[in-house]
Amino acid sequence: MTKECGGCTLCCRGTLTVQVNEHKVYPGHACPHVVDSGCSIHADPSKPEICDAYRCVWLQQPDMPDWMRPDKVGFILTESDAYPSAVMLTADFDSGRIDGTALFYAIDWCKLKKKTMFYTAKSPATGEYIRGNIMNHPDSFYRTGSMDEIFEPIELFNDG
Ligand code: SF4
Ligand code: SF4
């Protein structure tokens, strides 16, 4: 069964970074075109290709349960063809809330797939995103970075 985003719009709300025409969408800066039902410029040809192409892990994986939908758990998991041994967990910047049960589920899922989990999450100390990784299996590797470096998280998947 093909999954649909349903009521989730988390990737358009500044959790992930994307340039939408003149608008930069990044932590704390939602896309101006996002509405509760999804994208208000769905049929607009000026919409970037990534908007149609992006599918989070939850959407891609038929076996990942409904309760793991990103808006329900407070984070998005992203895979990249360019960096197949990693998964990026990006926490909901606005709520700053991560569901603990879901986090353990995600760590186990990555471990089973032998993927290193990177995270970007809101720092309680600074209120900004910080990046790190979870040594979730013996072959995990370590990367970290500054706020500037996470402005375009997909870069992380391209230079490893
Ligand atoms: S985070 Fe995933 S489920 Fe939510 S809107 Fe984006 S692609 Fe859809
Ligand atoms: S243009 Fe639409 S799909 Fe793209 S980020 Fe904005 S609301 Fe989301």
SSE layout and pairing:
Elements lengths: L17 E3 L2 E3 L8 E2 L2 E2 L9 H5 L3 H4 L9 H4 L1 E5 L6 E6 L8 H13 L3 E7 L6 E6 L19 H5 L2
The structure holds iron/sulfur cluster (SF4) (2 copies).
Instruction: Report on the biggest sheet.
Output: 4 strands, mixed
First CA to last CA: what distance? 33 Å
Separate helix tally: 5
The ligands found in this model are:
iron/sulfur cluster
Q: Summarize model confidence as the mean pLDDT.
A: 83
The gross shape turns out to be globular
- Our estimate of the beta-strand percent is 15-25%
- The spatial strand order of the largest sheet comes to 5-6-7-8
Write the element-wise H/E pattern from the N-terminal end onward: EEEEHHHEEHEEH
What attributes characterize this protein structure?
single chain; 160 residues; alpha+beta; 4-stranded mixed beta sheet; two-stranded antiparallel ribbon; 5 helices; 8 strands; 19% helix; 21% strand; globular; disordered C terminus; binds iron/sulfur cluster
